[in-house]
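Q: I have 306 residues here and want to know how they pack in 3D. Can you give me a structure?
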Amino acid sequence: MHLLLAISNRDCTKLISALKENLPGVVISQWPECDQPEDIEFVVAWQAPADMWSKLPNLKVVSSFGAGVDSIDLDLLAKDVVVTRIVDQYLANDMAEYVLTHVLAQKLRLREYFNKQQNNLWQPKRAYTHNHVLFLGFGELGQHCAKRLLLNDFTVSAFSQSLKEVEGVTCVNTQEQLEALLPSADFVVCLLPLTVKTEGIINEALLSQLPKHAALINVARGQHIVDDDLIAALNNQVIRAATLDVFSSEPLPSEHPYWSHPAITITPHCAALSSIDSVAEQTAKNAKCLQNGLELKYRVDRTKGY
């Protein structure tokens, strides 16, 4: 069996070493240093070059390097290629800590105090009393975050394409139900998969339905937000603040207005980073399943894109 890593802009040394430990006897290459692309059956990919896929005639499985598969152009893969993703317990825990931390930071006005510190301003205020967190997207990561928020006495609701049932959470799955929740949402956390339907979902229309004290937290993909609409909403006090971990272009260009906006907190796509050990372990298990003709774990529905 021949496994290929096609992961852009990352040092794969540790991953290759871990895979070799887990998959003795399996040939492991890294694109573009691949002498026999016709032998490749399994690819671990993240932002792989578009012209690579046509050079792999015997490809059977593509595994995303992360929890999402939007970095892979599924239309370039043959219909019989199975696509999987990484489900990492550590990633879920990291995401839950990040979301809880930044919800609390917005609730406690920390960004406001950081800004005032620059001007030597001593102006204490009570924390916001609002505590309704609305999730856009409610898969495994969202549900893990919700449990952490419930333990901290937040009220939680969630919108997703397929209706979920989670104790303590008000779950909805229609546009009408979502619009009914928006006026009472104090914090909106985006954890949607990136699809044709969800791209640009955080726009003027959605933002205008939120209360003026609302804060947005985006830990999904930058393309979910219409940047100009968010900046306009903040400038016009349509909403109060935003915490952004993901961007349409990464790294975020130095000239982007997000950098200097007083109501925006930026982090460098670090909310939840895949553990190399978890990636290697899950990749190895699926590679062995492929070798033995068994069902692969964490398959993606290619018609949905998640």
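Q: Anything worth noting?
A: The chain has eight helices and twelve strands. The longest helix spans residues 89-107.
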